[in-house]
């Protein structure tokens, strides 16, 4: 600090005295003590120059001096340049480098390509070279970047909550190893989340092999009962994969296929592919959903039935009965009708259809669904079972809890995850955990579990370590580090290796797992493309061993409220709670940020006289939680929905945000709502969801239909002509509202997060927002999503309003915002009919932690206080492409420029390109009969246009 | 001593033997307190940024702009009264013009502050002015804001000139009558050696009338220009050709309201009953009534246009009448026009307190109208998704109160140290009555 | 009782005159200041840890710019040479020179040399070296003739005006691609330069009316 202060002082002094010419070198020599003398001469400067007061003082000064008109005298401050000492091989400063790698979420590998600048990862994209990804990404993949730079990540081992060295950890591990060797692993338990990494599995196998008495337990915060269903149906464990790309008719019962989570990318890719095929006239793309509370899957579905979670079984039996598989439970008229439609579509598309039940439902339901798929001949096509890649299988959490209670566990090693927080209240893990004599926790954060363990060991992030994992369809993805860890952290592999005294490096460990089948050239190739070919497990001969007699529990819903607990679409099970990008990400349906709510149906809200923000207590069994109400149209009348992942004890970002719903997880029976009278302000980015008669989102009946043609409008100005003429097309029929585009944009364009209060004031900074509207009855309305970036109007009102020429039009049709010219009159935003402009009301960027500065994209200006900003069509990417093209003396190719939102979109809903050339993807999109302008009456000639949503999933009748 | 001499003495002696010294001190203390608040608010604004206000997206203009329009409107009355009526040869104005002009001046100062303070980067405000620079960039002349800059600046300069030229002869007589040396020097300096010779009077006449002739069109042009700030935007409730005349009338209306208040106040405080006579009050009342009715017509015209301007204008209109900010609309109607109706009766027009009350209510009413025009149009403009609400914060109010402090301080200083009434003109008119 | 002597009139008139002069003079002064080398830093020398002489290395030794500024043709940034580039020669010659101590220290400790930037643009300006080089804009057009710079100094005012002058009329600056790094230039006349430049513009389709839009440099 004082060093910096001194520099400030020197700069101040020098500019005060003005620069000096050197007449000779001996003047240079006296430089050192010249500085020294200055230091003594102006101690006041050094003292004044420290801390926040100074900054504010200077700002204040800056303001007043400026108003006095003396501002012109400011002079560029001196800068230093620090070149490499030895430049790394292949590194060109100022140029980006890309590496194929993979993240992991709940044991599923998420293939990525990481962009690094000066060895800093600054952007992640999905790796289309990997078989389990056809491009695009998810919010979690995008935000994993910030997770790497999270200032709250633990950077040193903790013993009893106090920092310590790894050396001590190693000694401790050595002692543990000796104990285990003598006892054969007596009382040692390893607890992990879902494990996908073959290398890690190998290590665990080795561990259990070495210490036979040791046990490996695994748990997932998100209940998944499909595995047991598969095992009892097939008589063997297997991995289930569904291929939406081939499924022309999908019936999803309380199964959020397209929703957030490890499977989102795979499913969204598949759905997008299917839907695009349907648009092109190849087959159908039907999606029928029955669910208690609207999910983005339900919103995407053409046919949605709100139904209590407890009725799913009955509904499924109804569908099954119509396909002569089992008898049906009594259904009401609505359910009958829906079952009829579902069964009909399934039958019509037999072999290319699919029934799927939410993973949290009872095994019987899954088995029945499998049976239906088998009968329809969908097995091996839309639904496939793969050989289990792993011989060793973990034991469940509950068993561990029993043992811990019984005091049979001497040492518990928690490898990743946060079980103390993220386990259902009914398991009683937390209490049992406290009784274990020796507790290790390895994780990214010193979280609830870490703080309750004797030893907390900081884990390396996936972007800074070697590993491997399996994509959705089984192909192995290789994780290679994009950056060397700057914190004292170790990878999961390292820790287990250390425990077992394995001296090989992480890289060697991973390499060894695949050494048998791959020589070095093949390995290099694998690293290059990010996956190891032909590693997908073979399908199992799917012949059910059990007879298809189903002991479905006839769960008739006795009156009363029913609880639905789901992982949060933004922070998932809580693992992303300390990630501002995701905390501030508006949840798809409610547009809530920074917190969760108790979602109720409009009917219930009316009955109890509840309004958004009213505090209620939700009681289920012996447990209860308190949270604010949110009324959600389309939710089943008696369902109460809460999201997991909030109400954290620790973390500068996550602490005190929302409420913890884990206590209620797994609670059966009726729930009760007590109105507490208080209110809590919820920060939502959208207040008004009804579309009324405004056609913001337009619809056509089938893919064959077109919108009525817009009458041509009179206009004083001639249409802009240029080559290229940049334009964007957003297909609302492909948009599933997953928010990947928003996070992609945030990562690419250095968009600051502003926090709950600011969002509540309507000051969120997202350049791209995904609007959500509904029309029709609040019981079961038609929902629609609409991504809204800047429209880049040809006749832009904002440009007319700006007094200083900060909002101007570029020759290639971009609606530019020149930050350094902007003085912040905000006229442009007042005049903008689409309200896509964002203003820096405060200095949102200056106070950022160094880590948060490191994540920024150097190609995009960081905006200061008081300037307007907005979507630029990723002008930095356009510039790059333009310069490359010019150097090669050719026009810019179609698809050469991909905007961040476009490359992030998993369904290819967003297309960007040159609309002056009729043979580009964007021109073809805009040529379709579904193309329309948003707010045509504003007559602004937007360059961003939309393609109408298609109501029906098939063109027949 | 002749009537003329009396008048002149009465007026020009005020600074020296201030009749209401104690009251003045109390008022001045109050004004200074508000002024302090102004500086605090501005300081906080510079340190933290415009985020301290309630503004947001979509309502990214809030108090600063509506208050700006309000202040500028108030400013207009002074120029109207003195310049317009001077050219029309309305002698009775002579009793009012001096402090009306002063009022104009200080109101314009307050107005001028707002657009600068409202900027995200106030220290760059001069980029709105066309000046040669190493960036090779000029202002954007299509933008109404660029012209705002010129409008306000011109208006300020002309008002200062007009007011100063007008006051010179009185400064001279003040100088001559002054007993204390320092007063003699003070007035003497600003009297620019006026000796009241025929040549002086001739030149003075020309220049005074000339400036008046320049000032009058400004009254119309400036506020028409300000209205473009809104009318040029494609926002339902703004994008209307009614705005320029509508704004000018509203401006005059609010201006006369403030003038009436000041008149009644000064008349009472400085005991100028026989200079500022009841008939002046009555005439002010009439002016209020007339401009008020014209403004009311503006309201009607706006509603009428909306009814024919398609769906969006209609929804905005409904929103103003019944929406979240309906209070601002009905408030404006109530304060502007309800008490105003008293002005139909001679005996209320002649009643100082009533006039004061009406003036006050109209001032409030016009403020509400500016607020309504700005907020109710922006908070629900086009896309349902971007609807959002505006809530003024403490700093919104404190800065507003602060500017009132600026105004009061300046005005009180003027009252204390300069002749508040154009003595020579009053005497002149008396003279003409006597001999004409 | 006369307060002011007749001379007072003169005083007042003089005051008015001063006022008028000030109103005209101040803007002119400001304008001059903005153009001044003090503000633009043209010709000013930064104190450097090592008194590196371009005059010697380029002028006397005839080392090409690209030997040290390697990425100038491929990257947005020309980049300062890594320490080991300096040491490729200076591990052989001037191995003991005291002025090179910081270089040897840097090599030994791995601590980079802290040069102080001479050619420096604001962060919101995105200048790309490679495209300018590719178009044949010679180094000297912006950095001047470094062969007479014993210590590096700024040769041109890096104001927006300076950039725009060229972007609005590129012809004179567009030299032969293969000679971009030639320190003194080819001794062509203005006419020759312009003629060549215009040929290049035709050949490469360089449109000045597109070169001066804000988005070219600002993002």
UniProtKB/TrEMBL annotation, chain A:
Protein name (database record): TAT-variant-translocated molybdopterin oxidoreductase
CDD domains on file: MopB_CT_PHLH, PsrB
One Pfam entry name: Fer4_11
Domain 4Fe-4S ferredoxin-type stretches: 726-756, 812-842
Source organism of this protein record: Novosphingobium rhizovicinum
TrEMBL record, chain B:
Location(s) in or outside the cell: Cell membrane
Keyword Transport recorded: no
Residue stretches spanning the membrane: 26-48, 68-87, 99-117, 149-172, 210-235, 247-269, 281-301, 321-340, 352-374, 394-415
Gene assigned in the entry: nrfD
InterPro entries from the UniProt entry: NrfD-like
Family: Belongs to the NrfD family.
Membrane-protein topology: Multi-pass membrane protein
Cross-referenced PANTHER family: POLYSULPHIDE REDUCTASE NRFD, PTHR43044
Protein name: NrfD/PsrC family molybdoenzyme membrane anchor subunit
UniProtKB/TrEMBL annotation, chain C:
Annotated Cytochrome c7-like domain residues: 125-218
Keyword Protein biosynthesis: no
The keyword Membrane appears for this protein: yes
Assigned keywords, A-Z: Membrane, Transmembrane, Transmembrane helix
InterPro entries, alphabetized: Cyt_c7-like, Multihaem_cyt_sf
Pfam family, one: Cytochrome_C7
Membrane-spanning parts: 12-31
Signal peptide (residue range): none
Name by which UniProt lists this protein: Cytochrome c3 family protein
Source species: Novosphingobium rhizovicinum
Taxonomic path: Bacteria, Pseudomonadati, Pseudomonadota, Alphaproteobacteria, Sphingomonadales
